[in-house]
UniProtKB/TrEMBL annotation:
Keyword Oxidoreductase: yes
Catalytic activity, EC: 1.-.-.-
Family in the record: Belongs to the short-chain dehydrogenases/reductases (SDR) family.
GO MF annotations, alphabetized: oxidoreductase activity, acting on the CH-OH group of donors, NAD or NADP as acceptor
Name this polypeptide is given: Putative oxidoreductase
Organism: Pontivivens insulae
The protein's enzyme class: oxidoreductase
Length: 253
């Protein structure tokens, strides 16, 4: 499905990023994997990919990733902008300035820098390849679609990601670039595990986390990655500007 396609995945050292890397590799993609953790190098080595140490909050690092993809393969066809951070549950008035600034810099401005560096390369490709510029998939969150109590600044940043996604989709709809976002609910990843384990009673914390989910469970990584493959597929050529909720039915209320 993704043969001869260069796929850049950020935040690929673990969790959804690493799971996505495995799935795209299995479908024949050429991978460029980045993360601020050096664990990404192990993931890259295992999958025969290129690994890069990069900070999602750095505009220069985003420029470097695009340049490396083009240097190695000549093109950048699909980007999965997955890198992001969360913060421990806390009310808005309790959120320290440093925490708020870090979340915005990584989750929102980091997405801005990703789009700002990826779009020009894809616009160039569209001119060279009869309108086939590429596909961008941003990983937002259900917190970008609904109110997220005790995750206020994280939710605000993810709402911003949804806004950037829609704006980028409109701006590039006639330039051969599709831009979409997925919005996972709580999914069984290390980040979610950390939130659960911060509580005095982890079992009770997980039960509380899924209390408002009609399916009454966490999402599984494979379920989220399946949606990534669908959204990024070259055959899915008429979908752009969409935010796909993968939330066990939360937004059906």
């Amino acid at each position: 499905m993704f043969e001869n396609r260069t796929v850049l995945i950020t935040g690929a050292a673990a969790g959804l990023g690493a799971a996505a890397a495995e799935a795209f590799a299995a479908k024949g993609a050429t991978l460029i994997l980045s993360d601020r953790s050096d664990k990404v190098m192990g993931v890259a080595e295992r999958l025969g990919a290129t690994g890069l140490i990069a900070d999602a909050a750095s505009l220069d690092d985003h420029k470097m990733q695009v340049a490396k993809a083009v240097e190695q393969t000549g093109h950048l066809d699909i980007t999965i902008n997955n890198a992001g951070i969360a913060h421990p549950p806390m009310r808005i008035e309790q959120t320290p300035e440093q925490v708020a600034r870090m979340v915005v810099e990584v989750d929102l401005l980091g997405m801005m820098w990703a789009l700002q560096t990826q779009i020009p390369q894809m616009q160039k490709q569209a001119l060279e390849r009869d309108g086939d510029g590429g596909c961008i998939l941003n990983v937002a969150s259900i917190a970008g679609l609904v109110g997220a109590s005790t995750l206020g600044i994280y939710g605000a940043a993810k709402h911003g990601v949804v806004g950037l996604t829609k704006a980028a989709a409109i701006e590039n709809a006639r330039r051969g670039i599709r831009v979409n976002a997925i919005c996972p609910g709580f999914t069984r990843t290390a980040m979610t595990g950390d939130l659960i384990n911060m509580a005095p009673d982890a079992e009770a914390a997980e039960a509380d986390m899924v209390r408002g989910v009609p399916m009454r469970r966490l999402g599984e990584q494979a379920e989220i990655v399946s949606a990534m493959l669908f959204a990024a597929s070259p055959e899915n050529s008429f979908m752009t500007g969409q935010t796909i909720a993968l939330d066990g039915g939360v937004t059906a209320y």
